[in-house]
Amino acid sequence: MQGVDRVRRVAELVRRELSQIIVRDLGDYGVGIVSITAVDMTRDLRKAAVYVTAFDGSHDKEKVINILNESVSVMRKTLANRLELRRVPELEFHYDFSVERDMRLSNIIDQLTPGRDGSDES
User: Fold this and answer.
1) What is the CATH number of the domain that holds 80?
2) Per residue in 38-70, pLDDT tens?
């Protein structure tokens, strides 16, 4: 069984490399501006759930996830060339709605908090 620290380190390596792969190699695939928010690895390092957020509002979230999941074989091959891992994890992409939820909550808090918008209601 792998140690928790190793799982975290490998997840971070995978996150960094996938970020570069998406920017450099998948830019022409129509995914827009995508940020990887988290990578959750299984303890045996065989599977990775990759959570992403698309910052370009013109792209459909479902379309972005479909494009990424259809490009998994290319990304795994590139990861195999870049990382020294015994086995490259299976990748599955998911949209991370937490960023949008956090932004909505922040906006609500800003609206409810007097003086947060720069005007002083005294």
Assistant:
1) 3.30.300.20
2) 999 999 999 999 999 887 665 688 888 998 999
Domain membership flag for residue 119 = no
| Residue at 27: amino acid letter | G
Q: What are phi and psi for residue 55, nearest 5 degrees? A: -95, -10
118 found inside a domain: no
Rounded alpha-carbon distances, angstroms, from residue 68 to 9, 16, 55, 73, 118: 23, 16, 15, 10, 41
| Model pTM above 0.70 | yes
User: Which neighbouring-strand residues pair with 59?
Assistant: none
Backbone angles phi, psi at 92, to 5 degrees: -140, 125
As to burial, measured by CB atoms within 10 angstroms (0-12 exposed, 13-18 middle, 19+ buried), residue 75 is buried
Using CA atoms, how far apart are residues 24 and 72, in angstroms rounded to an integer?
Answer: 15
Provide the domain limits for residue 23: 4-112
